[in-house]
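Escalation from tier 1.

The customer reports that the assembly of three entities below gives different C-alpha cells on two consecutive runs. Tier 1 could not reproduce it. I'm attaching the input and our single run for tier 2 to review.
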Amino acid sequence: MSKTMVQFILNAKPVQIMVEPRIHLIDCLRECFDISSARVGCEHGVCGACTLRINGQIVRGCLTLAIQADGQYVETLEHLNETGEISDLKQAFHERNAVQCGYCTSGMLITSQSYLSQTKGYDRQEIREHIAGNYCRCTGYEAIVDAIEVVAKQRGLHPNEKSL
Amino acid sequence: MNAPQELFERSATQTTNYIGKSVTRPNARRLLDGQAVYVDDIHLPKLAHVAFVRSPYASALIRSIHTEEARKAAGVLAVYTGEQLMRTVKPMHATLVHFKGMKAAMQPCMAVDRALWQGEPVVAVVAESIHQAIDAAQLVEVSYEPQTAVTDMETALDPATPVIHPELGDNLCFSREIDEGEFEESVKSSAVLVERVFRFPRHTGVCLEGRSVIGDYSRADNKLTVYISHQAPNMVQDCYARLLGLKESQVRVVCKDIGGSYGIKTHVYGDELATCAIAIDLCRPVKFVADRTESFLSDIHSRDHRVHMKMTVSQEGEIKGIWIDDLLAIGPYSVYPRTSVVEGNQIVNIAGQWYRHRAYKAKMSNVFTNMAIYSNYRAVGHPVAVGATEGLIDAVARQLKIDPVVIRRKNLLPDDAFPCQTPSGMKFEAMSHHQCLDRLVEMMDLTQLRLDQSELRGKGIFRGIGIASMIEITNPSAQFYGVGGARISAQDGCTARMDPAGGITLLHGCGEQGQGTETIFAQIAAQVIGVSIDNVKVITGDTDVTPYGGGTWASRGAGVGGEAAWQACKALRNNILELGSIVHKLEKDRLDIRDGKLVDVLIGESLSDLSELGRVAYFRPDLLGTYQAELSVTKHFVPKAYPFTFTNGAIACHLEVDTDLGSIRLLKFWVVEDCGTVINPQLVDEQIRGAIVQGIGPTLLEQCIYGNDGQMLNPNLVDYLVPMAAEMPDMVIDHVQTPTRTTELGAKGAGEAGTAGAPAAIMNALNDALSPFAVELFDMPFTPQKILRAIGKC
Amino acid sequence: MKAAGFDYARPSDVEAALRLKESLGERATFIAGGQSLIPALNMRLNQPGLVIDISRISSLRNVQSEEGGLRVGSMVTHRELGQSDIANKFSPIFRQTSRLIAHEAIRNKGTIGGSVALADPAAEWPAVCVALDARVRLVSRHTVREVSADSFFKGTYMTDRQEDELLDSIYFPPGASRIRPLIAEFSRQHGGFATAGVVLTIDLFEGVGRSIFFAISQAPIVIESEFLSDFVKSGTGGTASICERWIKEKLRNFELTTDLYHDSKAKGHIAAVVASRALVAMRSTLNTGSIDE
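Tier 1 run:
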C-alpha cells in the first residue's frame, strides 16, 4: 500500500517517482509527470485510448501498473512527436481529417505507427485489423485508414498481393 | 454550384475562395500533438475530487446512510447525502409546456429517500485524490430496501405494475396523437394494407471522454466557474445559476476540448450539478470525471422503441395512408432541461412524411421505467422514424413485388413539391429526394450489384442491397425548445473583430467537439472579409467572453452558427471599408478587401494593408476627424422562416450474410446528402461517415441489456459492443446542394443524417439478402442468433 | 474505477515468489501479464493484499525443445510464442493461435501461463493445450507436479491449480506434426472474445480425430472420433453439412453455456459450423498438399 520508488526512462529522460503500487501507468504519467497525452478511456484495456510504447512495443497503459514500468523505456506521444518519428503520420491525419475530438488520437497514432514500422506490406483490411483495438466514436475509421494507407505508400511499403 | 447569389458574387471577387473548400482544421494540430485540454487536463490549485456512491438497485427505498467511517478516511474533505444537497440545490423538473399533458417528477441532484435507477448517485465523497475518494466511498454504508422495478414498456401502464411516482398517477410521461385525413377510410378504400412491428434497442453514446466537470467557486468574487465537457455552455450557465441559487452573472462556463459528445453532453446531470454545489460549499475547486462503468449507468440512454407501423397502398404501390404507434421506455425522470419526450415527439412529427400520402394517424406513448435516465442522442428520433418508415416501404415493395427504387420513385415527394406542409404539420422548405435517389442509384451501379447478387445466390452466397430515403431536422428555431418555456437558446451570436495588426478574431457562442465548426467559421470570415484564413482566430466556449449562443445540437453549427458568423463578418467588412474610405478619402463603393489588403477596385490598385488601417483606427484616431471606427461587430441570428430546416438524403448499404454463422459483413455504403451549401466538403463528409458508423452500432451490435430487476447486464466495453475498425466499411459520399433560402449562407446541418439513415439501409439490405429464405427481421440489433433463428438454422 | 490499495513484490525467482505466496495465502495473488487481472483490480472485483509480479522471472520465460517436445515457460507472452521459431517449428498452431488473441497491445503483455491459469472459457490456449495433450507443470514450495491439460481445466475460472501453486510451464509432447492441429473460431469482432471455437487434431496414422471446443462451455469439450479423421481423409466425399450435423448431434451430449447474445443452441450451431468449415479446409490442404495457415 505504501509508496515505492520507481525508476524508468520516460521519453528518453531518466525519471524516478514514489508511487503506490495500485496506481496504473496512465494515472502516474498524468499526475506525476504532467503527460496529458496519456489518456484513460475505460480502464479495462478495451478502448485503446491509453496505448503507449514500452521497450518499443505498444501496451495498454491502463493495464500496466506504474511500478511495473521500473527499469523500462517508456514513450508517450510527446516523444514520438519530438523525434519526428511520426511527423508524416501526423501530417496525413491532419490532411485527411482523421482526428475529430482528438481523444482516441494518442493511442491511435501510436498504434498506427506500430503497424507501419512492423509491416512488410499493407492493405486496407490489414490496417483495419491492426487498429481494431482502438475505439473511435467520431470518425467511423475510414479517414484513419486512408491516412495510414497514404503514409504506407510514402514510406515505400508495397500493397499486399491479395489487395491488388 | 447552387450557392446563394451573394455568396457566389463574393466568390467571384476573391483570389482565394474558402467556402466550398476542404480546408484542414487549425485546431486539430494540438490534438495531434497530444496537447488537447480536456477537463481532466485542467490543473487548479487545491483541486479536490469527488466520487459517488451509486444505487446498485433499479428501485429501492433508502433506509439509512452511514458516512462516519467514510468521513474519517485518509484525505477525505467532506461527504454529502442527497438530503444535505437539497438545502442548496433546487430539484430539476423537466417539462415543457408545448408538450401538452406531459408529466414528470421533481428530480433531486442525488437520491433522497429512494433510488429510482441503478447508477443514481446517492452519496458524494470528496477527497484530496480520486483514489482516496473511492476508497472512502467503499466505507459508506447505505441500507437499501429493494422494490419491484419497472422494466417492461409493454406492461408499464398495467394496473398491476408499480407506479414509480404515485403523485403522477401512472407511469405515463407523455402521449401524443395526430389524426389527419381519415386513416380508417384509407383502409377501406385501399387495395392493400401492410403492417410491421419494429424494435429498436436501448443504447447509449459511449463518448470516449467520460462526462467531466470542475466546479470552482471563489467566495471573494462570488463567482462559480464551471469547466465542463459539454455542448451548450450558455445552457449550463443558465441552469446551474437557477438550480444553485446564483445569479446568471455569477456563473461562468468554460468548454475547452471535448472528447466526444453526440448529444450525451447536452443535458444537466445530477452528479455534475452536485459537484458544483459541493465546490460552492467547500470554496475549493472540485472535479468529477465519470469512469466507464458510471458512463454506462448514468449517461443518458436512448432509442428504446417498439414501433408498430402500417401503410395503406394501392395495388400499384401508391401510399394512401400511414399509421404509426410508437411505444418507448424512458427512465424514471424526465431529463433536464430538454425533457425525455423530444425523441418520441419527433417520431410522430416526421414518420413517413417524406412520402406522398393523404391520411396520417400517429400515436406515441412515452412511459417511465426504472432503467437508466434517457433523452436526446444524435439524430434524435430520426433513426427510429426513418428505420420504421423505410423498413415498412420495403416490406410493401416485397409484398407487391415492386422494385424498392421504383416504389420510392412513385411515392417520394417530388422535388418541385416544395414548400409544403405535411399531414403531420411539418413545414418542408425544399428537398431533393428524387435527385438524391437518382444519383445514389447511379453512384452504386445498382444494376451491376443486382446482377452480382443473382449470380452469387446461385452459389449460396447471400448479398443484400438496401436503400433508404431520409430526412433530418437541422437549424432549429425557437419552436424547438423556447416556446415550451426552456431557456435553451435557438439563436447564436458572433463577434467579428479586426485587431490592430489586421488579424481577424471571431468570438462565437457555438463551439465544437471535433466537428470542425471553428474551422468553417474561419472559412466564412476569410472569404467574407477577404483575408487569408491563417489570419483568422476563432474563440469559443467561454460564457464570460463569447456572445450568448445555443451551442451544438440538432446540427445547427453550420446553418445557424455559420449564418451568425456570416452576418457579423459582412458587417465588419462594411465597417473596415468605411474606415478605409475615410482614410483614403475615396467612396466606399469602389473599395474591396482582397488577400488582406484594401483595394481600389476601379483602378485596380492596392491601397494599404489592413494592418495600416488597424494602426490608424486604434492608435491614430486623431487622423479620422469626427469618424469613430467600429472594428468589432456582433451579430446574432436565429432561424425564423421555418421552425426547422429539414435536410434530405438517400443512403444505400451493400452487405453479405453468412447464413451458416448468422454474421453480417458490411461491404459498402453510399450516401447522397443534401445539406444545402457545403462550406467544407471534407468536414461534412467526415461527419456523415462518423454518423453512419454510429447508426451501424445499434443495428448490429449495441444494446443496453437489462435484467428483469432493472440492472444493466453489460455496463462495460467487453459486453457492450461498439463498432471497431475491422468490421466497418468504406463509405462513398456525394452531395446535392439545395441551399436554404432562409439564410444568406444557405447551409443546412449535416452531422446527424448518417445516423438516421444507416439502420434502415442495413435492415433493408439484410431482408433483401434473406429474401430467398422468405424471412424478414425487424428486431435490432441483428445478432447472429436472431438471423440463424429466423432462417431456421438453430 | 481505481484499484484498491495493495502491496507489490517482484521476486527474481520462483522460490522467492512461492515463499511470498505461502506467507499470505489467499490474500496474495500472482500477476502474470496483467491483462485480465488489472481490469479486475481496477474494477475492484479483486482486492488482494499483495500482488506478486512473476512476469519477469527469467526461468519462466523460455521456449525450448525438450525430449522431442516443447516446453513453454508460463510467462512467455502471446506475441513471443507466436513469433518463436522453436515453437512454430514444433507446430504452426502457435502462430495461428497467437494471431487470434485480442490485439497487439494485449499480446505484448498477456502470457500463455496467465491465460491457462485463469481458464476463461473463451480463451484459446486451454483448448490448444488439451488438443496437444499438453502437461501443465505446477510448483509449490515443496512439490512439483504435472497435470494433463484435459484434467487441468475444470470449469469457468476453475483449474486444478492449488492455492499455493504457481504455474511454471507447459509441456507439449512430441507428435504435434503427426496430429496436424488447426484452430478456428468465430467472433463478432476482430480480436473480440470468441462466440465459439475449435482446435482440431487429426491423426491420420491412428485414424482418429479430435475436436476440442472452447467458448461454448465452461471447460473445453473434447469429441474424439474416427468420423473426423475419415471426413478429412475422404477426398471429395461427405459434405460440410453432414459434418455440421454430426457435430451438432454430438454437442447435444454436453452442457453448453449461454452468453448475453447467444443461447446454448445458437452456440452449438455456430461451433458446429466453425468446426465443419475447419475440417473442410483441413481436407482440402491434405488433398492439395499445401499448408494452409
